[in-house]
Specification:
alpha/beta; Oxidized Rhodanese, domain 1
Length: about 120
C-alpha cells in the first residue's frame, strides 16, 4: 500500500513527472531479461536499500545523488534509470540530474513497490 504523501510533496512530484522521461517496471524487467546491462540507481534511503533492491542496482540516495553523481557517472549521456519506493523521489531526482546536464535519465514509475507487487526478483543487502 502506498504511503500517504503530503499534498505539497505530491504537487512537486507530479510536476517533476511531467518534465522527465518515465519507464515502467515491465519495460525494465524485459530489458534485464534480454541481458541488457542497465545502470539502475536506487534513490531510497540506505535502510530501504538494505531491506531489498533490484539486483544489480547501485545506491545513491536522493539526499546525496546530486552531490555524488558526477563521480559515479561522469558521462552525461549515459542512460540512467532511477527508482525509489513509488516513483515520486526518482522523478524529483531525475529532474535535478537533467538540470545538471544528464541527458538520458529515466524515472521508473511505480518504483520498487510495483516491482515487488509483480513478483519480480529482489535482493537484500
Amino acid at each position: 500500500m502506498a504511503p500517504n504523501h503530503s499534498p505539497r510533496f505530491l504537487a512537486i512530484s507530479q510536476d517533476a513527472k511531467k518534465k522527465v522521461r518515465e519507464t515502467s517496471v515491465f519495460d525494465v524487467k524485459s530489458r534485464l531479461d534480454k541481458g541488457e546491462k542497465l545502470l539502475l540507481i536506487d534513490v531510497r534511503e540506505e535502510s530501504e536499500f538494505a531491506k531489498d533492491h533490484i539486483p544489480g542496482a547501485i545506491h545513491l540516495s536522493k539526499g546525496v545523488i546530486e552531490r555524488d553523481i558526477e563521480s559515479a557517472v561522469p558521462n552525461l549521456s549515459t542512460e540512467i534509470i532511477l527508482y525509489c519506493g513509488g516513483g515520486f523521489r526518482s522523478a524529483l531526482s531525475a529532474e535535478n540530474l537533467a538540470r545538471m546536464g544528464y541527458s538520458n535519465v529515466i524515472s521508473m514509475d511505480g518504483g520498487v513497490r510495483a516491482w515487488r507487487e509483480n513478483g519480480f526478483p529482489l535482493k537484500s543487502h
